[in-house]
């Protein structure tokens, strides 16, 4: 499902993704993105969140959860979740993802695009890396409530850090500071 060509097609919507700052910053951003993708998808194995019992509907932001719509559990490389994220991504793509969130799990380009959109627009991950806040800021932005603030790194957070260090090593760049939550 996850192909290189679909990834490249999706990134064309975001010309500053992986191309902001010095070459080292660019490499760190790609390493950070793929480290989080690796954790979220079990090494590109999962298209949908394993536990699909969570509905992830929060109407307090004024975004409904239409009747008959599937749950807003995670889908795609960064496991897009929550009704408000599907709504915002759908508006950005001129699609109704709120009514049909499963589109993210059915179209490879859309799947990658939703993850890069989240990285760039909705989570501050791009800014965290390009403004030298460190990899830990991406963990907090993506899944901090579950993986951070527990006194020490949880195993999923440690996995992300290890993946990030490995990708940085492969790309020949120092991982920088502030790696943990």
From TrEMBL:
GO terms for molecular function: chitinase activity. One of its GO terms (biological process) is cell wall macromolecule catabolic process. It comes from the Eukaryota. Residues 1-181 form the Glycoside hydrolase family 19 catalytic domain. InterPro entries: Glyco_hydro_19_cat, Lysozyme-like_dom_sf. Pfam families: Glyco_hydro_19. Signal peptide: none annotated. PANTHER family: CHITIN-BINDING TYPE-1 DOMAIN-CONTAINING PROTEIN, CHITINASE-RELATED. This is Glycoside hydrolase family 19 catalytic domain-containing protein. It comes from Selaginella moellendorffii.
């Amino acid at each position: 499902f996850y192909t290189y060509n679909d990834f490249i097609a999706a990134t064309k919507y975001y010309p500053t993704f992986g191309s902001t700052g010095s070459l080292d910053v660019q490499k760190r951003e790609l390493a950070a993105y793929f480290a989080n993708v690796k954790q979220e998808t079990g090494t590109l194995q999962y298209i949908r969140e394993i536990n699909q019992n969570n509905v992830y509907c929060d109407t307090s932001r004024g975004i409904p959860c239409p009747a008959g719509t599937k749950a807003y559990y995670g889908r795609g490389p960064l496991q897009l979740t929550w009704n408000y994220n599907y709504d915002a991504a759908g508006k950005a793509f001129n699609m109704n993802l709120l009514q049909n969130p499963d589109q993210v799990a059915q179209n490879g380009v859309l799947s990658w695009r939703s993850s890069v959109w989240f990285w760039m627009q909705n989570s501050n991950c791009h800014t965290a890396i390009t403004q030298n806040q460190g990899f830990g800021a991406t963990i907090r932005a993506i899944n901090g409530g579950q993986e951070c603030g527990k006194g020490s790194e949880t195993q999923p957070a440690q996995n992300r850090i290890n993946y990030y260090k490995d990708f940085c090593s492969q790309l020949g760049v120092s991982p920088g500071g502030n790696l943990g939550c």
